[in-house]
Structures
1.
Amino acid sequence: MDYKLIDMTVFGDNRGHLISFEKCNNCPFDVKRSFYIFDTVPGIVRGNHANRNSEFLLIAISGSCKIKVDDGKRQEIIELNTPQKALYLGRMMWKEMYDFSYNAILLVLTNTLYDEKEYIRNYDEYLKEIKQNEMG
């Protein structure tokens, strides 16, 4: 599976703390787009798609949420509940974000600009494309 948890270095003192994102240090790509998810409704699932070309870095900057990652063969659930951990997701990973805590804010960084054509929003189509890519 093309994902990994990245420990973020925290800088700070009695005035507060900060975490920076730096390519080749704790962010494995050039950031071209960022967005954040907040004010989610209880029971809602976000994501439910894969991206052909995008890589992602997800950080729970407030609160917590769970992310189900799926490479077409295996599924795993990762809980993000601290800004000191980031979840890297590679290309063609199916993702579902859910179980957001009250006041959760999930920051997402990606290496591509938004392009609806690179999204796969149907899980059966995703599995077909994974199989085609494996065959060559």
2.
Amino acid sequence: IGLMGPWTQPVLGEVMQGGAAERAGLKEGDLVLRIGSTEVVDGQQLRELIRASVRDGQPLEQPWRITRGGQNLTVDVRPEVVQE
């Protein structure tokens, strides 16, 4: 038996001013359909894909397929590596 959190849509929340998402043209409320070749089915998977978008300390630029205002768009997103 596996435990899962509640299903959530892969919708972007707050976009940080000056951050990687804003520089790529992403906006709060964008529905993420695909990152690279991977279809995004829920919010948990979206978070996991974002975390996995850095390999060997280097961010991987990938096209994101999103829906905004009824339009499908593709934007290139280059994550920002931040150490806390």
3.
Amino acid sequence: MVSVDKAVIARLVKGGETFEVLVDPDKALSYRKGSPISIENILATSEIFKDSKKGDRPSASDIEKAFGKGMDFLQMAERIIKEGEIQLTTEQRRKLTEEKKKAVADLISRYAIDPKTKMPHPPQRITNAMEQAHVHVDPFKSEKEQMKDIIDMISPIIPISVENVEVAIRVPLEHAGRAEPVLRRIAQVKKEEWTSTSWIVVIEIPAGMQADIYARLNDVTKGSIETKIVGETKL
């Protein structure tokens, strides 16, 4: 366990009640990002508090109502760390927010396009629009959870639309064996047909991902694919 003096609060509000544990801020943040750290090594104490500053503890009935029966302390602490809010230092929050802002811009660049040109916006253009719109990025929410609201906020600044496109792709038979597994991993196959000379497949993808997918297919087929957009759907 970590020193209480260096610990911060991880807080989860559930069912109208507050539950807190004391954690190492760096280890808790790394755990939230997916690092395989044991819960024991993140915690500073073996207690759940209602208000850790006052030393108040929740009642057994409040704990059971929020977490159910049969859940031990470490399981409850894990829930609080995973789902709750972790107090961070100013520098930690700034760094985490910048990382999340970049991740959101990258995601929007893959899923959204300029409806006039049908081309994706570069991530930096999206980041600039986010700054102009004074977008607040939540460092603890996933990129997908925030994407729609952020697109709505930046749409007055840059023309932007989230669309899926259906693309017909013709792959010469000699390259189909390499192209097929690549394509099935990165796109939804709607239709396909095998002929004596080609594999013809229709896929549905976010409009902004076209260039990336075409590049991957051209890499494994030596630039021999043919593509054609056969449908569009606004999301």
4.
Amino acid sequence: SVMLGTTLLTLTSCGGKGGSGGAVPAQSNPQVSTEVLTDAGIYRAVLSPLNTGLGVSTSGTVEIKIEGDDVRVKSNIIGAPAGVKHLQNIMVAQTCPDQASDTNADTVIDIKESLAKTGQILIPLDSDLSSQLSGNDYGPIANNAGSFVYRRSASLTQMLSDLLDRDPDTLDPIVKLPAGNNMLALSNRVVVIHGVKSSADLPATVASFDGVPAEPLVPIACG
């Protein structure tokens, strides 16, 4: 899972002594604790392959650096299906699917079985990190060797503003942050890479969404 960034904790306490000449109990003022939470730090997801029975073995890393208002994301992926557009998403939960997630036993972990473990999509790693919906049809295309590199940056303020906005479609797999939550909390998330070739031999039982072909949504790596 995505590793911990930086948390700043300030703890202040004060107390006093009893008077002289006897067993006067010491008296202390109540302890004052001020906790300042921030998303600042470097987070790295180390990806492991999923659905290797389809002839893919995708791995790599996704690294996110947050410094001030600057968010920078970079992916380095190998072993992905060549010539295929690969969607990348940061999910709500912190658990990756595994073979036990294939609840209908058709040998493929499909998008709906994957979402049952990872939760919904929080941050699409697409062409516009500042918006969940703008640019979310973008995905890097793996080269002939099955590799791709992805680099994008955004304003943390703009990202959080969008993530706390009203959800325009509560039935789709993309979800907003809970009201009042002003942190990405990346250490509690996982990243999923999707996409197999259109010629992949998928069982008819592999699920998708609203007429979208199943192949672009099949998860191939998670970390």
